[in-house]
Amino acid sequence: MTLKSLPEWLIWQESLNPAEIELGLDRVLAVSRRLKLHPPAGYVFTVAGTNGKGSCAAALEALLQVSGLTTGLYTSPHLIRYNERIRINNQLVDDAILVDAFEHIESVRGDTPLTFFEFGTLAALCIFGDRRCDAWILEVGLGGRLDATNLIDADTAIITTVDLDHQDWLGDTVEKIAAEKAGIMRPGKPAFYGDENVPLSIREYAQEIGASLSCNGEAYSYCVHADTWTWQGHEVSLSKLPMPSQCAQVQIKNQALALAAVEACEPGLLSDPGQIRKVLGKLQVAGRFHEFSDTHHWVLDVAHNQQAAAVLRVGLQQLDKRPTTIVVGMLADKQVELFAQELAGVADCWLVCSTAAVRGSTADELAKRLSGVLDVPVEATGEVLVAMDRARERAPVGGRIVICGSFLVVGPALELLGLY
Question: What is the rounded (10 degree) CA torsion for 12, 13, 17, 22?
């Protein structure tokens, strides 16, 4: 088979396995053995969690890179370009590197029906190994135990938060979902949980396999001041850290977790407080409470579940009061009603757009579900760019327009506004 361009490869990968999501490690492990992957010694970070994975992984990348390590970061999904999923030293890999990796995987795949995500995961691991990245940061796609990223043993396992999401695959309770995410932990290796109220299943699994579990408020802590914050780890203490520009309370929690994970690997990586303050001060993650003003005040956030919606609501309530319009698009398998309930009362109207994906929802379908729980106007508009135009028409000049619900919605919006 000869597939020359990256778009052709991606289209073909989507057809290779009829299931968009098919959890399990058998397929990806079989192909990985033929690839003979070579992870770095001591610096593989695997990041799982319901929310905050991308922000924590970005903080890890920045902290490790400023310490002189060559970093490889694998995340998903992407906002605009597939290349966003694989970065080396904070630079997107180009099409040619991706195509080379895909060709290598295909040369050994045989008849194993890899999913789209599995193909991409193997490509990232090949690229990181070929370019001798010192530190690999792997963001789990879904769950943890059966996710393709879990084929590599984590030197440090990180779980940001656990809440209800992806119940069709992970279970219908927080404890069941937490047990799936706990599967990234390894015996004798450090593991971290970044939220309050640690699920029992995480503590029990860590004890069962002998992982060294450290939790927020127990093994490390942080304190927020008026315009700075302080972090206390096992050996290292850092003061006068800059306040994040995006949803400060949540991002501080993610950054504190990243600092704890780096310290567990090697405290010396945190030996320059000035550099750490500088790198955290510049850290921004696209699509996370991203503010922008033109004729209107825009807030773009990839929140797509109840927990993330609650964080978005708090962030919006901390802003000045303005007439607010929400533009939303969500996948059909999301808990749309609970998401909307968290944001009820925040907006004067909701404009609903379609999401173009296998699990996507049409604007009409989503609007019908939202109308059942909201007592403000809900209008189906079509694709996201049409919804944005409609929002400009409906919202008064100077009003606020919130874009949320999915990467598939926020990505095109960021591009249209020239922000990414």
Answer: -160
Let me know: does 326 contact 350? Beta carbons within 8 Å: yes
CB atoms within 10 A of CB 41: 8
Q: Domain locations in the chain?
A: 6-282, 290-416
- Is 37 within 8 Å of 129 (Cβ atoms)? yes
pTM summary value: 0.94
Q: Which class is domain 290-416?
A: alpha beta
Per-residue pLDDT of the chain (420 residues; tens, 9 = 90+): 456 799 999 999 988 877 666 777 999 999 999 999 989 988 999 999 999 999 999 999 999 999 899 999 999 999 999 999 999 999 999 999 999 999 999 999 999 999 999 999 999 999 999 999 999 999 999 888 899 999 999 999 999 999 866 556 566 798 999 999 999 999 999 999 999 889 999 999 999 999 999 999 999 999 999 999 999 999 999 999 999 987 778 899 999 999 999 999 888 899 999 999 999 999 989 999 999 999 999 999 999 999 999 999 999 999 999 999 999 999 988 889 999 999 999 999 999 999 877 777 899 999 999 999 999 999 999 899 999 999 999 999 999 999 999 999 999 999 999 998
CATH class assigned to 6-282: alpha beta
Residue 261's identity, in one-letter code, is A
